[in-house]
C-alpha cells in the first residue's frame, strides 16, 4: 500500500500567518490523485483540494495545493481563526485508499 | 444538497455483530461508489471499505477483510456495513462517504456525521 507521511505533526502559528503542510508518498501517485481534507474537532472531514491542486466547491482561495508524484504541499496563505484544525492528505490512485496521519494547525 | 445519515452504532461486546446503515439523499445514488472510513478515538482516518455504484465490486482493508461486509440497496438509497467478530480495536467513529462517480476518478467529497461503535466488555 502507498504510505503517506505528513509533516510536521503540529504547526503552531498565529492568525494571518502562512501555513505550509507536507505530504510525502512512499510510491508515486499517478495523475496526481491526491486530496486534502480539513477536520475540526467533533466534525466530519471536509474536502479542500483534489487532483493535488484543484479547490473543491466553496473552498476559499487562500487554500492551495501543489506537488506531484511523491511530494505534495497544502498552503494556507493567511490563516483565519476558522482554519485551525487537523489536515489530512489522501491518495485515491490505487486501493487501498490511504490517508496521512494528519497535521494539526494550532494557534500559537 | 447531499445528505448522508448513518445509524446503527452502539456498544457491543467483543465477538459480537453490528450492522451500520447510511441513508443517502441529494444525488443519484447508484452513480457513485460509496465508502466507509473509520476514526478511532484521538486517531487519524482509516479507509475501511468501498463498493461500486452497481454493487458488483467491493474492496476491504486488510484489518477488516473476512469480518466486515459492505453492501448497498440502490432502490432504497442506502449503504450498509455488516460487522462480525468485532474486536476492541474496531472501536471508532464510522463515517459513510460519497466516493467516485462511475465516469471519473474523484475523491470522497461528502461525509456523514459518523456513528460511534464501541467494542468493549
Structure described in brief:
The complex is a heterodimer of chains A (108) and B (121). By secondary structure, chain A is mainly β.
Q: Estimate percent helicity of chain B.
A: under 10%
Q: Which consecutive residue ranges of chain B, at least 5 long each, have pLDDT under 50?
A: none
Radius of gyration of chain B: 14 Å
Number of strands of chain A: 10
Provide the β-strand percentage band of chain A: over 45%
> What string, H for helix and E for strand, traces the elements of chain B in order?
EEEEEEEEEEE
Pick out the low-confidence regions of chain A.
Answer: none
- What proportion of the residues of chain B form beta strands (DSSP E)? over 45%
Radius of gyration of chain A: 13 Å
Mean pLDDT of chain B: 96
Structural class of chain B: mainly beta
Question: Portion of residues in helices of chain A?
Answer: under 10%
**End-to-end separation of chain B:** 40 Å
Count of runs of 4 or more consecutive helical residues of chain A: 0
The major sheet of chain A is characterized as: 7 strands, mixed
